[in-house]
Structures are given as structure tokens and as C-alpha cells.
Amino acid sequence: MNNALSQYSEESYIFFSIGTYNYAFNAKYVLDIMQLVELEYPESMPDFIVGLLEYNNKMVKIIDIRSILKLEATKYDLNSKIVIVKTENDTFGILIDDVKEIRRINTLYLNNPPYDTQKSFLEAIFTEKDFSATVINLENIEKTINSPDIKASDILKSSSSLLPKDTQSKEKLHRRRMHYARKMREVTYEIIKSQDTYITFHLQKHICCVKILHVAGFYKFANVKLTKVPCTPDFIMGIVSIKGRYITVIDLLKYTENKTTEITKDTSIIVVEYEDYQLGIITDAIGETIDMDETSLHRKNDYQTACLNEYVAGDKLYLMLDIKKLFGDEKLYVS
Predict the structure, then answer these.
(1) Helical H runs in 146-241?
(2) Model pTM?
């Protein structure tokens, strides 16, 4: 195997889709992931720029990466996402169809493409079983979009023409932007590895969250092979083999409320880790990445078990997962 990196390591990557293609880049660049919102449109701008967005008191470019990669242009819709990234010299947004997952990968699965990647937008090919994704070189993307040789074009010829234009969609995009602006006033965003950055996940009517520093990956339940283990508590779903490591998977709802989680197409497993141990948790769906100032959180009561605690942040109630207490329960381990 011709590896893109000379030495083995594990790093977090964000995987996303554009049309029928899968792409990825290192999650260290990610500042934020949001739904498509209303953007500003200058009279003229390069054709790969969809619009401008105020982010952290700075106007950032939102780019149509399909234009950069010479992919077929298609209409965006209300389900499109914006990933805000920060390279060494700039901050900008990338408009994509959907985020698949953020997870750690073995860099041995990264292979060099059969061409010189020094000046290319593509730096590696990720392959794992029946899944593959092209790894994008964000530093080269940044150099291109900021090149002094790039000329502005008429707005009618720019990628902004591919955004939803009907009245109902424009009103919804405007409401999203107003909501986002209020959120930005309340929260100062940090990079994805921030101590106060959390991943939310849904458990029936509850919104739960866990510090992203303890998250080792997300996996669709339908895409993993779960092996049942006899003579274990009923909240233990079984074990899965991920990257050669066997991980116990639990139904957290069964563990905390003695209710069984219904398996649907959105059911996911979030793998959390503490010290040298990992544990898979069944969730109804993975939520979003949020940043919360821990000093502003209002602690309520322990919820059912010591591993979930109620906190109020703003006007929302979250069940925060206490990793240390969860991993301290010996009943969770399958030997």
C-alpha cells in the first residue's frame, strides 16, 4: 500500500458529501458546522464565491467548492451545510451537501493519488472496506481563492445563482441567519478541540451532550456488525469490532431509564473514550457541535444515574454525560 503519510497515526477527519462524491479533510481546520443561512452578495465577486457571512465579527467568504474542483454545478437547497474552516492564513466557509461524520481514522488508510499532489487540491484517497473518500488540501484551496490573479465576475454568473431563490426559502434562510447572529453574540467559538466544545446526541425527548475531547467517532448503526454476548445485562447491546478493537455497545436509554431505544435509519453509535477505554453508546441521532462556557452552566439534579446530570444553558436543558462516572461502572464491561 502506498501511504500518503510515512508513519502511522490516528487523526480526526470530517467526512462530507457533494453530490454523489465523498470528501474529507482534517478536523483540526473546523471551526463550525451550520445549516445554510442567508448570505451577503456583493455586486461582483469571483464565480466560486457563493456569498459572504459575518463570523466572529469578520466577513468570511463562503465558497462553492464544486467550482474549485471542477464538478458539475447543481442547485443548493435548505438542507445544504456550511463548514467554517481556518487555515494558517485565512478563515472561510465551504458549502456542502451534508456532513457524514467526524471520526478518527488510521492514516494507513490514506493513499497517495497517482499524480503529483504538491499543487493539487486533492492530497490523498481514504479507503476502508467498501467506502472511499477524497481528502482535500485546504491550504491549497485557500491559496487559490486568495490569489491576486482571481478576477471578479458579474453576480449573475457567480455560484450565488445556485442558492434557493423562492420567497419561502429566502424567508427561512433569513430566520436562520437571525438565529445564528443571536447565537454568535452569546457564544465565542473556539476550534473543534476546545475544552468547552460538545457533541450533542438525541435520546428520545432528551438532548444529551458529551465533550468532544472524549469522542472517538460516530457510526451509523446499520453500517456496523453487532455481535450479541450472552449472560450480560440487558442494556448491553453487544460488541463491535472497529479498527481491530472490540468495543462494548450499550443502550444508554435502557441503562438510565430501563426503556429500549427504537432502532431507525437515523440510529447511530457514538464511541466515547476515557483513558485507555472506549465504549459505544446507542443514540437516536447525532446532533450538532456546540460550544458552552462551563462557568455559565446552571447545574440541576443528577438524572436517574450519576452519569447523566441536568444542566441549563440559556433556555435549553441538556443531559451532560459524566464520562468518569460512566466508565467507573464495572457492569458495562464485557470480558
Answers:
(1) 167-186
(2) 0.55
